[in-house]
Amino acid sequence: MSVKEHKFNLGSLLSPAKILVEKESVTKTALIKKLIDAVCQGEPKLDGADILAQVLKREEGISTTLDTGLSIPHARLEEITDFKAALAVLPSPVQDPVNPNLSIKAMFLFLSPAKPVFFQKHLQILSSLAETFKPEFIDELIALGEPAQIFARLEGQR
């Protein structure tokens, strides 16, 4: 099965507790840290500072922000055996520091297991994110404004 043939259910990676509606002005780095904190909540084996360093290293020089307004910071980690994710929607967009022409209206942070067997699913997630998070869909999530409603909308996305 190719990446294009299977649209991944992004809601399966989230819960309302892993969705932030960030109404205050923040930097991209601060937002990534907040999402990592959300992912690490209840996961004592995860080191948030180490994950932040890995994600920021990946972000150096090459932005994961798409022209649709979606930013997809991610990392592959040895210490996890399943995918982890958190989502932020931003009623007030954040400028991408690597490419100031891009505004971030939603950020989907995900962490993948580093084992090769997970790489195909990693690609499916990236593909589904790019396919799903079009500007209109991001605006719809921002308008919903509540994590539980955003989660329900993502769960219904196929």
What does this structure look like?
The protein is an alpha/beta fold and 158 residues long. It has a single domain, classed as Mannitol-specific EII, Chain A (3-Layer(aba) Sandwich), CATH 3.40.930. Helix content is 37%, strand content 20%. The chain contains 5 helices and 5 strands. It has helices at residues 28-40, 48-59, 119-132, 135-144, 147-155, and strands at residues 19-21, 70-71, 74-77, 84-95, 103-113. Strands 1, 2, 3, 4 and 5 form a 5-stranded mixed β-sheet that branches. Helix 1 (28-40) runs antiparallel to helix 2. The model is unreliable at 1-5 (pLDDT under 50).
Summarize the topology.
Layout: E1 19-21, H1 28-40, H2 48-59, E2 70-71, E3 74-77, E4 84-95, E5 103-113, H3 119-132, H4 135-144, H5 147-155
Parallel strand pairs: 1-4, 2-5, 3-5
Antiparallel strand pairs: 4-5
Helix pairs in contact: 1-2
What's the CATH topology name? Mannitol-specific EII, Chain A
Task: State the CATH architecture.
Answer: 3-Layer(aba) Sandwich
> Any idea what the shape is?
globular
**Tally of DSSP helical segments:** 5
pLDDT averaged residue by residue: 89
Structural features:
disordered N terminus; alpha/beta; 5 strands; Mannitol-specific EII, Chain A; about 160 residues
Task: Write a short abstract of this structure.
Helix content is 37%, strand content 20%.
